[in-house]
Amino acid sequence: MSLKIKKVLVSQPKPATGKSPYYEIAKKYDLQIDFKPFIKIEPISLREFRRQKINIQDYTAIVFTAKIAIDHYFRLCRELRFQIPESLKYFCLSETIAVYLQKYIVYRKRKIFFSELATLEDLIIAICKYDKENFLIPVSNVHGNGLSSLLNKKNIKCSTAVMYRTVSNDFNQDEKFDYDLLLFFAPAGINSLLKNFPDFKRNDVAIGAFGSATAQAVEQAGLRLAIEAPTPEAPSMVTALENYIKKLRKIL
C-alpha cells in the first residue's frame, strides 16, 4: 500500500475558472489533479414529478443534503409556478449547503438551520426541535432511505421526493486510469467506478468520500476509505484533502 499521493482524480466537472482551491492545493503540494465526473445529473420532468403525487405546498419545512437538491427544488417550484412562502423553514446538512441557498433566497430573512457538525445525526437533533413541521426531502432517483427512516423512527412527519436523476458517466475503454487518490461525492459515483472498471480492487488507491452515504458505499465496495468529509475539522472536501496530504507528509 503506497502512501505517496501524486495524482488525484476529483469526480466533478472541471472548474470553469483557474481559481479553484483544488488548483491551489495542486500547486502547493506539487500534485496533478484531474477532473472527471463519474456521474451526471439530469432533471426529471414536471410530468415525472407529478406522478409521485407530491404536493409541494403541503410542506412547511424542507431538508437539503446537497447543493444539487437545492437547484432542482427551486427549478421545480418555478416550473410548478409555486410561490414559496417566506415562512418555509430550511434544514441543511452543512453550513456550506445552507449558504448556497443565497442563490435563491434572501438568506437573512429566512429561517435556516444547519448541522454544526455536518452529520445526519446532528441535523436530526435540529429537526426534532421542530417536530410539528411537515418535512420534504428532495433526493435523486438513487437515493437511500437513511434520513427519512431515521426521522420516521422519531415520529417526524416527512416525505422524500425525487427531483433529479443520477446516471453513470461512461469512460472510454482505453482511458488511462492510474490515480493514487479518487474523490467521490455520491454513492452513485462508486457504482459508476465499478461499472467502468469492474476489476478495480486495488488497495493501494485511496478513496475520499463526501457524505456518510458515500463513505458507506466505499466500504461496501471493499475499497480503501482514506478521507471522509464533511467533519468539524474539514467541512469541505478541499479542506479534507489538504489535511490528508499534510498528514501523509508528516508520516513520510
Automatic annotation (TrEMBL):
Membrane spanning stretches: none
Gene Ontology annotations of biological process type: uroporphyrinogen III biosynthetic process
A Pfam family the protein falls into: HEM4
InterPro entries in the cross-refs: 4pyrrol_syn_uPrphyn_synt_sf, 4pyrrol_synth_uPrphyn_synth, UROS/Hem4
CDD domains: HemD
Residue stretches making up the Tetrapyrrole biosynthesis uroporphyrinogen III synthase domain: 26-238
Top-level taxon: Bacteria
Residue runs in coiled coils: none
A single Gene Ontology CC term: cytosol
Record-linked SUPFAM superfamilies: HemD-like
One MF annotation (Gene Ontology) recorded for this entry: uroporphyrinogen-III synthase activity
Protein name: Uroporphyrinogen-III synthase
Classification of source organism: Bacteria, Pseudomonadati, Bacteroidota, Bacteroidia, Bacteroidales
